[in-house]
Structures are given as structure tokens and as C-alpha cells.
């Protein structure tokens, strides 16, 4: 089977599993968008998925996106995919992100948000963004540390203040939250992480109704069905579409 056929079959399977998960909880398939995470895979893999109708793609490293995105754009003509930045952004790479990406999932500090906002203003655009939250308490995970926010006002209050400043930035439009659950073989164990992010969104809706809190970006290859059952509107799936990444490559 050639690589293109394999990607087609994988995409169909992921979409079918997404639809079943949505149906189980009374949601419709159009409520959840699939972001195909193409990191470490070449532009050809993106184009194969594009041929199958896939329109949203995710990358976690600004430099890799800055190389791949123009190659894909050159090959697809006027219709453009939507490119999602899902990885940690160093402030000095913010210009690459604003130049190449359409949607940012990984805003995790105010200094970065300010930089992204001023670059967007200079480019004459407003960038839709999500705020990355670490609600699992796992130390290796990026994002605002929010473990225990439900019970601890000293965790919650500084975050709400920071988000209020973030929401006011002219070059960004905050649309929701993103999280990464701990890696697990058993997806049920991360259900509380996704439920916690949904709860946090409800709290923010009350605190800061001036922003739209529509999106929850959560769920990857191992846990996207549970994430959809818990309210994900964007799932970020790499391996189940493009296959395993080579060993030793940073994920
Ligand atoms: C790599 C990555 C994904 C996709 O992971 P898979 O396990 O390949 O589905 C999702 N989100 C982020 C932030 C990633 O870096």
C-alpha cells in the first residue's frame, strides 16, 4: 500500500472514531474539528492528506512550519490549509509564528502574548488564539500551572488576572483553552484532565464574558475519543494519521 493510500485509510478511520465518540454523548460530528499533526513528516504527507479533503494541520516547531508551510502553499494553489501552531513558542520565534500560522493553541505567558499581539497588529491582522493550561499537574507539561484550580483560589486568581490582560490585547482574539494530558496507555485515566479543562472554561465564561470561550483543544492519538466525550472542539492527531514518528525525534 503506498503512503497516500495509507494516509487516506487512516484519516477515514480517525473520522469514523471521532463521529462515534461524538454520537455517544449526543454531539454532532461538525462540533469537532480534526487538526492533523504533521510534525516530522514532509510536505508530501500534508499534500496526501489535503488530497483526501483534510484542511487543518498542526505543527509544534515554528522553524519546521516556516519551511513546510510555503512548500504546501506552492503546491495547493489559492485554497490554503489552516495551520495550527501547537507547540511551545520562544519569544524570538514569535515572528515566524505570526508570519506563517493561522491559529495558535499554545499561548502560555503574557510576555509572549504581548509580542504576538504587537506583531499581529503590525501585520494588520487579528490572530485567533487558545490559552494552554496544565491542569494535570504533570511537571513536564507546558502551559499555565492550574493543577487544583477548582479548590485553590491562589491558583485561580492570578490566572484570571493574567487572562484578563491577555484578552484585552488588540492583536489577539482569545477563543478558548488547550491542554495536553499525560501520556497513557489507558485513555480513561485522563478523562478527569479533560473534564477539568471544560470546568475551567465555564469559570472563565463567567469571569470574562467579553471573550468567546468556544474552543477546547484537547485529545491526541491515544485519547481523542475520551476528549470528544468531554467536550473537545479541536483534536490534534498525529500518529493515527501519519504513522509513527522516527525514534529520537523531539515530539
Ligand atoms: C505531537 C503533538 C500532538 C499529536 O500527538 P500524537 O500522539 O501523534 O497524536 C498533539 N498535540 C501536541 C501539542 C503535540 O506536540
Set down the secondary structure blueprint:
Layout: H1 3-24, E1 33-37, H2 43-51, E2 56-59, H3 62-76, E3 82-85, H4 94-100, E4 103-107, H5 110-122, E5 127-134, E6 144-145, H6 153-167, E7 172-178, H7 191-207, E8 215-217, H8 224-229, E9 234-237, H9 239-242
Parallel strand pairs: 1-2, 1-9, 2-3, 3-4, 4-5, 5-6, 5-7, 7-8
This protein binds pyridoxal-5'-phosphate.
**Tally of alpha and pi helices:** 9
Evaluate the radius of gyration.
18 Å
Structural class estimated from helices and strands: alpha/beta
Quick one: how many beta strands? 9
> Cofactors and ligands present?
pyridoxal-5'-phosphate
| Low-confidence parts | none
What's the overall average pLDDT, rounded?
95
Strand content: 15-25%
What is the distance, rounded to the nearest whole angstrom, between the alpha carbons of the first and last residues? 26 Å
Tell me the major beta sheet.
9 strands, parallel
Shape: globular
Amino acid at each position: 500500500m503506498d503512503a497516500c493510500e495509507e494516509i487516506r485509510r487512516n484519516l477515514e478511520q480517525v473520522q469514523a472514531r471521532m463521529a462515534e465518540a461524538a454520537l455517544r454523548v449526543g454531539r454532532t460530528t461538525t462540533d469537532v474539528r480534526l487538526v492533523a499533526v504533521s510534525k516530522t513528516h514532509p510536505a508530501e504527507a500534508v499534500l496526501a492528506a489535503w488530497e483526501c479533503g483534510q484542511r487543518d494541520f498542526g505543527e509544534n516547531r515554528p522553524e519546521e512550519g516556516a519551511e513546510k508551510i510555503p512548500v504546501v502553499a506552492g503546491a495547493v494553489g489559492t485554497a490554503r490549509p489552516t495551520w495550527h501552531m501547537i507547540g511551545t513558542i520562544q519569544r524570538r520565534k514569535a515572528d515566524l509564528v505570526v508570519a506563517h500560522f493561522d491559529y495558535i493553541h499554545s499561548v502560555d505567558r503574557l510576555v509572549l502574548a504581548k509580542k504576538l499581539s504587537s506583531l499581529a497588529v503590525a501585520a494588520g491582522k487579528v490572530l485567533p488564539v487558545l490559552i494552554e493550561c496544565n491542569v494535570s499537574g504533570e511537571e513536564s507539561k507546558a502551559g499555565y500551572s492550574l493543577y487544583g484550580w477548582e479548590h485553590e483560589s491562589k491558583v485561580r486568581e492570578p490566572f484570571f488576572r493574567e487572562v484578563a490582560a491577555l484578552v484585552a490585547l488588540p492583536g489577539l482574539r482569545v477563543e478558548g483553552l488547550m491542554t495536553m494530558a499525560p501520556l497513557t496507555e489507558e485513555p480513561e485515566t485522563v478523562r478527569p484532565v479533560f473534564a477539568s479543562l471544560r470546568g475551567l472554561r465555564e469559570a472563565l465564561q463567567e469571569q470574562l464574558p467579553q471573550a468567546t470561550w468556544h474552543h477546547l483543544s484537547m485529545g491526541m492519538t491515544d485519547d481523542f475519543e475520551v476528549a470528544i466525550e468531554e467536550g473537545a472542539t479541536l483534536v490534534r492527531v498525529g500518529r493515527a494519521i501519519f504513522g509513527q514518528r522516527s525514534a529520537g525525534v523531539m515530539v
